[in-house]
Amino acid sequence: MSTREYPPESTYDLWMPTLDFTRSNAAVQWAYLMNQGVHFLMPPTVAALPRVEDRAAALAAAERERLETGDLYYLDSAACAVAGAVELQRQAVEELVPSPSGFLVWEEPPMLLHSGMPIRAASWGVAHDGGTWVSWWSDVQAAVRMGLAARAALQVAGPLQFHQEVHLPPQSWPTQASDPRDPEHGMFRGLFGAWAAIDTGAVEEDAVPALPRVRKTARRQLQVEAPPVRSFTPSASGGATTSPQTIVRRTLGGLLLERPYPGELPAELAPWHCYVQDSGHCLLVVLDPVETGHKETAGGPARIEDFCVPVPVKAVLRAGWRIGEDGYARADVRYDPALGVITDPEDDEF
């Protein structure tokens, strides 16, 4: 048993009560706060709802969906230090996030609020306009230990308390992430630093599978499957490139299911494996030539990542493949502009 207050498995102890809060108490609590004059950021369609209760319920439902479908991330203390020092490059946020939706826990909080309460976690997902919606969560447990809150607060809010959200439009970069003078800089720098460290390989992943008790609780009480925690520690190499699995998750997002390949894959191809709903076991590859099947991005130059498509494993192995100088897997597979990738039905593996 770990003696650390926040080991990787504690991610479940924070994620599940937070998800439960969005299902049971968030709508009522947020409606009360709205009636007290507390401002909540809302998409236009939510802001147009006539009743406060309906607006609060819509916000809670959206946050619940992000938590239900997101990947789980954890940075240990050393990885937090790396994330705090990694250089941030201005770019579209949706090109930086390690997956379309997620819930991230820091072992060392990136920021303390004026009350002294730590920011412990952040969640994010795709916004109504294709941008990114981010929420930060403060640590009630730590506040109780520090004497900043009564123990009864844990029964009301759970181990985490909703602190703040932000909407980042498509192709945007928030000034808070780059301006140390901004009072919100610590939150943004912590999250964006974590994303950048994962993206550049400055931290490396060691997946922590959910324990049986966690899986049982998630299924029975929350009706969801508990995904593995993607736990990060500093990379031995210092990092230089985005890992294949980060590209897979960022490209395919909610279409992915956690299913290991039943056979053996060449070592160079294995990191590109993915199990896609309705497509089964696939490899994320760049079609040769790379112009084939290219989908334009919403502004900005295209990246090689934008040419990646999932192709059944057997189709890639039969067609022939190679790893390019940029590290991406490539295959010469038939592509039709209207139908997409064309493969033999016998190649499908479920």
Describe the structure.
- The protein has 350 residues and is an alpha+beta fold.
- Helices cover 32% and strands 22% of the residues.
- It has 11 helices and 15 strands.
- The strands form 3 sheets. A 7-stranded mixed beta sheet has the order 5-4-3-2-1-7-6, with helices on both faces. Strands 8, 9, 10, 11, 12 and 13 form a 6-stranded mixed beta sheet that branches. A two-stranded antiparallel sheet has the order 14-15.
- Strand 12 and strand 13 form a beta hairpin.
- It is globular, with a radius of gyration of 21 Å.
- The two termini are 37 Å apart.
- The relative contact order is 0.12.
- About 3% of the residues have low confidence.
Secondary structure layout:
Layout: H1 10-24, H2 26-35, H3 44-47, H4 52-69, E1 71-75, H5 77-85, E2 102-106, E3 119-126, E4 132-139, H6 140-145, H7 152-157, E5 160-168, H8 185-200, E6 203-208, H9 212-222, E7 229-234, H10 244-252, E8 256-257, E9 273-276, E10 280-287, E11 308-312, H11 313-319, E12 321-323, E13 329-331, E14 335-336, E15 340-341
Parallel strand pairs: 1-2, 1-7, 10-13
Antiparallel strand pairs: 2-3, 3-4, 4-5, 6-7, 8-9, 9-10, 10-11, 12-13, 14-15
